[in-house]
Amino acid sequence: AGACEGAAAGGAGGACGSPPREQPVLEPVLPAAAEEPNGTDSAKAPKVNCEERNATGGERFTLQILNVSQDLMEFLNPNSSDCTLVLFYTPWCRFSASLAPHFNSLPRAFPTLRFLALDASQHSSLSTRFGTVAVPNILLFQGAKPMARFNHTDRTLETLKDFIFNQTGIEAKSDVTVTEEDWEGPLPSVLTKGIDWLLLFSVLFLASFVLYATLRTDSIRWLIPGQEHEHQE
């Protein structure tokens, strides 16, 4: 259950499909413009004017993963202009697993920004709200407002650095690389097996409906006791 849809959800894009859900209508997210070579982008003004925070505490350098009972909106201050990079992932998606060590290293590269991650299968309402119909999906928030979406198929530390720099103008620390600790966590880089209960319920409901509709057709009423006399009349 919960198979990656690398071909169906984008082919070269490399994304895992999420369970069917409502169309996102609450808050449109402006997609990030296609990034050009660094020589051109470096001369552009930043698209998002982020308020850089004081990076003196050790917790600033750690990725925080939200559990099922935590709400993303509680971690985003609508009255602030600081920026947060949020990753929507699922533990059974191989593209999310391959991205994990690179995303784990970002807080060290940008200590003045905040980095959050959440399991999209456990926060389906947020996935619907922000249009994350496939995972992994990365959104840049300013306060509580989504400003840009990471659209590149090559999800590495360098492309993530370029995306943040092109959007905010904040330069990454040059000495940060992906380490063995980044492969271990906090975001898991090893696939986990699980049951997608929402998808299973949807399949069972659809199968029950088809069976009920089939039994109601005139062509097989004779299979139901008591209907053969009515058919003969």
TrEMBL record:
One GO BP: cilium assembly
Transmembrane stretches, start-end: 197-215
InterPro entries to which the protein is assigned, alphabetical: Thioredoxin-like_sf, Thioredoxin_domain, TXNDC15
A cellular component term, taken from the record's GO annotations: cilium
Span of domain Thioredoxin: 39-169
Pfam families: Thioredoxin
Gene: Txndc15
Protein name: TXD15 protein
Positions of the UniProt region annotated as Disordered: 1-47
UniProt keyword terms in alphabetical order: Membrane, Transmembrane, Transmembrane helix
Gene3D superfamilies to which the protein is assigned, alphabetical: Glutaredoxin
